[in-house]
Amino acid sequence: MADETAISGTTEESIRGRAAVDKASAVRAPEDRDFVEQLGSGLAPSQLAEDEATLTVYSADQGPLLERHLPLAVVWAESVQDVQHIVRTCSAHRVPIVARGAGTGVSGGAHATRGCIVLSLERMDRILDLNPDDETAVVEPGVINAELNAAAAAHGLMYAPDPASYKMSTIGGNVATNAGGLRCAKYGVTRDSVLALDVVMADGSLLHTGHQTFKGVAGYDLTALMVGSEGTLGIVVGVTVRLKYLPHEVHTIAAFYQDFRSAAAGVLAVGKARVQPAIMELLDNGTLEQLDALHGSDLQKRGKSLLLIQTDGFGAAAEAAVVRQVLADGGATVTMEASAEAEMLVELRRNSRGVEVDDEFRVGEDIAVPRSKLVEFVASLEAMAVRHRVRLKVVAHAGDGNLHPTFWMDRVDDATDADALVRLNAALDESIQVGLEMGGTITGEHGVGQYKLRWLGLEQPEPVRELQRRIKELFDPAGILNPGKAI
Amino acid sequence: MADETAISGTTEESIRGRAAVDKASAVRAPEDRDFVEQLGSGLAPSQLAEDEATLTVYSADQGPLLERHLPLAVVWAESVQDVQHIVRTCSAHRVPIVARGAGTGVSGGAHATRGCIVLSLERMDRILDLNPDDETAVVEPGVINAELNAAAAAHGLMYAPDPASYKMSTIGGNVATNAGGLRCAKYGVTRDSVLALDVVMADGSLLHTGHQTFKGVAGYDLTALMVGSEGTLGIVVGVTVRLKYLPHEVHTIAAFYQDFRSAAAGVLAVGKARVQPAIMELLDNGTLEQLDALHGSDLQKRGKSLLLIQTDGFGAAAEAAVVRQVLADGGATVTMEASAEAEMLVELRRNSRGVEVDDEFRVGEDIAVPRSKLVEFVASLEAMAVRHRVRLKVVAHAGDGNLHPTFWMDRVDDATDADALVRLNAALDESIQVGLEMGGTITGEHGVGQYKLRWLGLEQPEPVRELQRRIKELFDPAGILNPGKAI
């Protein structure tokens, strides 16, 4: 369960990913031996690993690590029956199960916990059905988001949710975190595309939720309850999704501003013009600086902030014309029509994730605020960065009010590490508090996982949390499904 | 709880709305007297009624009535505190609460049950906030859908879900049933527009679910769980919704076909052209006949089926051009550009609800099937109508695969009533079974209420139903919130 006092208790290790391996898990108790044997008895040898290298790889996702635990084993399910066997075996032995897809999560939702096994669903990667007339697909959880999109594109269709990890992450993982992405303001988040789920419950039974049709209101919406529950209520083994139409046409606009405030005002101006872009990404000066450093570009010379907008569909050209006009009126330097550069910038933004999750002196967030608070919130972030003597860069899915601010520092020598990390985390905690005061949420799309439990109590009062704990108990009385995550 | 044997047990009374008043409820027990006094003690005199005329009016919504029960009292809450007082009093006395908005539901979700009170939320009708920059609104549950839309339209915004009852029904009622409407295929159903809820729980406590932002994934999606739960998990007293942009431009196309099959093929052809209409309504010959009879029009002379399509947004004209071409290629007679007649037809369709819910010899449904099954399903319906010697008309939100077939008969003399009703219901039950066999659902947008409980077990297997019952128990241990509905 969450420890709400953890804000002050954050340790250097927890932030830096230098967590000591939990040695206890390396010494195997006889009952664990029995358990692993029983687990393996229902699987092929290639479906279970116990070597330390594999256990280590599968012990964490891309989220900050508080304490590394090696799982008792890693198992790869290749069928629904495999998952049922694994869950039943774990249930009998009360062994926690951490399910994962590609492990690209950034909140620690797939971090191994003490004495657990890690259940990888990456081998269940078949697109079972893709019906262009129904505009639906049925997939196993391990299907990569981009692969489903490639298959759908052959029919002029797309699977809309597009997290930055879309080339690596799985639909199952997207479902577990209710993943967002760049185009959700227009096309919705994962929950809005999921029609039905096959779920292996904590007792090993298989439950089918939802409906194959676009609409359906029979009974409680168990599908929506499962989406975003981070593997704590059941193991998703099948996903029926609605597909949408690949846009007829796409127009891309890059607008440079001399300050962030004007760029954020541009977001609201596009809204006031009642144009709904497919993508509306806001990049601050810190981000432009990083992109220049990485790619040798000269973005910073052209402005202090960049607003990247894509319109799509049959109205894309007309919408782009309105957007250009509105942004120019607001003082932006706007790229010309069909700008290859603008498209390249969107690609850079879309694929910038790799460089963002890989630094010990960088703490990132996923706050969403009401759209009208964008300017005020970023101004607060800038003041925090100054006060805590850290650097800041901000990328926002501006159409959603979803910001990914990152506080960071250049790598410093060991002697000052502790101080640096304290300052980074003080800025981070303050950003969360200010975001919440503005009516925001601690996580727009990444999920709570393990890492954000320390803030969840700031957003959700105890009765809401208690209700969620009781739902968890109802679904998983023994508490074996990804304990200590999400709620 | 549902009685799955009810299919064969349907009585004449149940169908014809001639149900006898439950006399038991007219004789007031002393403990009921005490309860009503206590209920009234916290309310103004104008907030409670016990006269038989009022009790009768509030004893049912527009759904078929199985057995009429008069409530002990009708109370009108005017504040969240009122609702809390009412729920606490009912909780203390274990009196069931049937919450309702405008009572326009057609599944009996707001029918009074034995010994209940009816809690009307129609007086909680304030739009508390409408923020054009955030593109959100906060409303009390009694706000009429059309009034929220009127307020939003002043800012170039709209509240997207548009059930046929939109001029009468309340947002609270829309939330309770997860209402759909004409434009959901493009803009989503109620759930997709609801960001947060204030809910009075069964113990009288006030819970706030969700987030003020477009995106938010902290904890389980309690908001989605509440939406569509028909007042069985809590009483919704506040709703935060996302607004969308009023379309820049709307084009309307009417396409007449010589048979229903070709019209349904037109729906798929528009899909294949990857055009997403805002509205796509399919009307069969029976419906055209009815419209002609009501309005003196000559629709039947022009075709045996009508496909009504609206495209909207900046691409409306270009989309309409594609749609016209595709439909003409499929053999349709297509109206010219900017047809006033086509717009009039959409208005007729949109406001046709009044004539559909008001006949004792008419049984309507709300089945959704995968889009590709539209033709096959309607062919089956036609065969059923012939076999059971009843008449049929079908209107479909074709973009969603959501059909409203109606089996009906001309009014017959009393001697043959029983046989007529048996035939109508046999056709109805068969239509449900065939719809389910095609991968459909028993309710696309109306809700299960009380009336459709008899079919729920055909769609949802026992473990799914049992899980829902346990969720219900968790939220409402004493079972006072709209018992015998929804699940």
Task: Give a written overview of the molecule.
The structure is a homodimer of 487-residue chains. Chain A has 487 residues and is an alpha+beta fold. Chain A is built from 19 helices and 19 strands. In chain A, the strands form four sheets. In chain A, strands 12, 13, 14, 15, 16, 17, 18 and 19 form an eight-stranded antiparallel sheet that branches. A five-stranded antiparallel sheet of chain A has the order 5-6-10-8-9. Chain A has a four-stranded mixed sheet with strand order 1-2-4-3, with helices on one face. In chain A, helix 11 packs antiparallel against helix 16. The longest helix of chain A is centred in the C-terminal third of the chain and has 24 residues. Chain A is globular. The N terminus of chain A is likely disordered. At the A-B interface, strand 9, helix 10, strand 11, helix 11 and helix 14 of A face strand 9, helix 10, strand 11, helix 11 and helix 14 of B.
List keywords for this structure.
homodimer, 487 residues, alpha+beta, Uridine Diphospho-n-acetylenolpyruvylglucosamine Reductase, domain 2, Uridine Diphospho-n-acetylenolpyruvylglucosamine Reductase, domain 3, Alpha-Beta Plaits, 4 domains, 8-stranded antiparallel sheet, 5-stranded antiparallel sheet, 19 helices, Vanillyl_alc_oxidase_C-sub2 (chains A, B), FAD-linked_Oxase-like_C (chains A, B), oxidoreductase (chains A, B), FAD binding (chains A, B)
